[in-house]
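Title: Prediction job returns without error message
Component: structure pipeline
Severity: low
Priority: P3
Assignee: unassigned

Description:
Job completed but the reporter wants confirmation the result is attached to the right record. Sequence as submitted:
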Amino acid sequence: KPELNKRNSEMNDKMMIGTDEIPVCSGYTIGFSIIESFKMNNPQINDTELIDIKAEQILSLSKYDE
C-alpha cells in the first residue's frame, strides 16, 4: 500500500519478477483480486467508468483490505 502510486520501485519489481518469498506475477494476481472485489461491491460502476477512477479510490471502494 505505501508504494501504490510509485513507479519503478523495488517492490514493484519484486511483485512482477518474483523473489524467493514472492511468486512471479503476484502483482497481477493481487490487482485482479482488487478489481473483482471492487466490481462485487460497486456493481453500478461499469468497466468504462472504472478506467477513470484513481487507484486509491478503487482500493478503498473495493474493501479488499478489510
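Comment from assignee: result matches the submitted record. The CA atoms of residues 48 and 55 lie 15 Å apart.
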